[in-house]
Amino acid sequence: MTETMAKSQSATDKRSKSLWLLGLLIVLFSVGSSIGVYLFMDSRQQASANEETTEPKEAPAPIFVKIEPFTINLQSDEYSDRLLYVGLSLKVGDETTRAFLEEYMPEVRSRLLMLLSGQQADTLIKPEGKQRLANQILAMFDEPLTEPQPSLDVTGVLFSEFIVQ
């Protein structure tokens, strides 16, 4: 009988140790999960606090260089007189470019006159023709106006007046 009691007591001890080990694992898992949730929520709270304190950045004010309108004779296949009346502004990226273009405006207008006088009236009527012309005007600034010339930051061409007659 002692032998069966010893066996049953050793089985009970094993079960008891297993239950203690299982309980300990559950407690450790719960503590670890709680710490993980706390850290996750704390990091989200810090991120939202940083977003609230950071002021939204305002976009820089655009800089435009207005070019006075002028009238140009266009090429035409029909040998009739075709005219282009155009006014435009150049969108530039910095004050240095604006000041430089205003200083060299006679040169800029001359180059624009040469570029525009070589255009076909039929192509300028279409939106694709206007876009192609805007790209050609941008490409015109790849060639230096003077030596040495600072790097020009001309980012766009905006037509304010555009009449083909």
Automatic annotation (TrEMBL):
InterPro entries this protein is in?
Answer: FliL
Highest taxon, organism lineage: Bacteria
An example GO BP is: chemotaxis
Membrane topology (UniProt): Single-pass membrane protein
Give UniProt keywords alphabetically: Cell inner membrane, Cell membrane, Cell projection, Chemotaxis, Cilium, Flagellar rotation, Flagellum, Membrane, Transmembrane, Transmembrane helix
Q: Where are the transmembrane segments?
A: 20-41
The record's similarity note reads: Belongs to the FliL family.
Give the matching NCBIfam families: PRK07021.1 (NF005435)
Put simply, this protein is called Flagellar protein FliL
Q: What is the native source organism of this protein?
A: Chromohalobacter israelensis (strain ATCC BAA-138 / DSM 3043 / CIP 106854 / NCIMB 13768 / 1H11) (Chromohalobacter salexigens)
Lineage of the species this protein comes from: Bacteria, Pseudomonadati, Pseudomonadota, Gammaproteobacteria, Oceanospirillales
